[in-house]
Amino acid sequence: MKKICTRILSIVGNVLAVRAEGVAYQELAEVSTSMGRSLAQVIRLDKDLVYLQAFQGSKGVSTGDEVSFLGHPMRVGFSSNLLGRIFDGSGEPRDGGPPLKDHLIEIAGPAVNPAKRIIPRHMIRTNIPMIDVFNSLVESQKLPIFSVFGEPYDELLARIALQAEVDIIILGGIGLKYDQYTYFRNTLEEGGALGRSIFFVHTASDPIVEGLMVPDMALAVAEKFALGGKRVLVLLTDMTSFADALKEIAITMEQVPSNRGYPGSLYSELASRYEKAVDFEGAGSITILAVTTMPGDDITHPVPDNTGYITEGQFYLRNGWIEPFGSLSRLKQLVNKDTREDHRGIMDGMLQLYAQNKETQEKKAMGFKMTEWDKRLLKYGKLFEQNMMDLKVNIPLEKALDNGWKIMAQCFRPEETSFRKELVEKFWPK
User: Fold this and answer.
1) Cβ-contact 333, 121 below 8 angstroms
2) What stretches of 103-229 adopt beta strand conformation (E)?
3) DSSP 3-state assignment of 56?
């Protein structure tokens, strides 16, 4: 039986306050006004005082309007018909297609019991050398992409969506501009990947509360597909926008702020989403890549700072490419041993030489005389950046490893590198 309140105690911004008993946190309610009906969600409980965030805002809502509690949290329809579809942050179609009202599943459920998880063991190939060679993406991993506004993180996510060796792509967009949303849609459609993709898109003009639900919707659907045996890659952008939405609602609720105004629950809010990454025994998996923009390129900002404690490494996207130093995939050693015997050697050896190249660049900038070795290091650095770091490079792992040997052979003699003799004899270009 629906609980109905016929009087709203207060309206502050988009937050409504009513008195009701037996109501659950995150339960949905329907607000009936002279302009029609709209949804709201319970965001705080204080004994019998219930606070709701109105999806469509409080415009047109008066204290005499009726609030009906629906008895369940936000739900989303689940079926194979989701593939190729685009929805907004409340699960309503954004693509003009029919709504999916059957097989409704609740969002924001608990993470999988650790006892039911298995150790990650499969690599997800992307054909991006800076990922596949140097920081391999592992199935069921959770990794953020730390970046700043203006960097091509949309392009990077779209490339990964097109090229990743997975069954299903789920894109969760939070606070996207309209041209960002259309870029993802058009790129995946032109690349032939839209048919295996699902979009949940919240734009900057949509209600704030819908942005909070986008990760939960994406991950709830991902979990159902994974339990059915599918390898699912969830791409989220931007988790800083998600945290800002949390912050805005916390301020409206007059909660005591923590670091830089963010709520004290920021860590647990982020962790509850990232911990949905899982590999099921005898079924599929969920892998999460999430863009996290850093205001002022500040890694100590609360959002990237908290994220770093939760995830299993990070990619740093700076100056248009994935930085080799600072980027880290902590699970790569679980899969690199199963690719090619020279994978670990190429990864370590090329990065050591590139580190020497960076030192040489500093010497050159300070006016030091360049030795013959310095000149070869500078040449190597340019080749490494052009053939490995450039995000336009689109080659499989084996080709990237072969290119690594060719780059080094153009600049050095085998004895000048740190590679084992058996690897040099087998792979060094003749």
Assistant:
1) no
2) 104-106, 123-124, 137-138, 142-147, 168-176, 197-203
3) coil
For residue 137, the number of C-alpha atoms closer than 13 Å in the C-beta half-sphere is 28
Tokens of 108: 């924001």
Q: What integer pLDDT is reported at residue 119 of this predicted model?
A: 86
What HEC string does 248-260 produce?
Answer: HHHHHCCCCCCHH
Domains annotated for the chain, with CATH where assigned, are 3-72 (2.40.10.170), 76-333 (3.40.50.12240), 343-427 (no CATH)
Element (H, E) at 53: strand 49-54
Distance CA 44, CA 52 (A): 7
pLDDT tens, 199-258?
Answer: 999 998 888 888 999 999 999 999 999 999 999 999 999 999 999 999 988 887 777 788
**Segment 257-270, tens digit of pLDDT:** 888 889 999 999 99
- β-bridge pairing 75-77 and 66-73: unpaired
**Can you state the angle between helices 178-190 and 153-163, rounded to 10 degrees?**
30
Q: Which residues lie below 8 Å from residue 141, measured CB to CB, with a gap of 6+?
A: 120, 277, 287, 288, 312, 313, 329, 331
Total residues found in the chain within this entry: 430
For 390, the token pair is: 């450039």
C-alpha separations of 244 from 9, 151, 156, 178, 270 in Å: 27, 20, 23, 19, 12
Closest CA to 77 of 42, 108, 56, 107: 107
List the beta bridge partners of residue 288.
142, 234
| E-state strands within 197-253 | 197-203, 231-237
Helix, coil or strand: residue 411: helix
Q: Say if CB 53 and CB 246 are below 8 A apart.
A: no
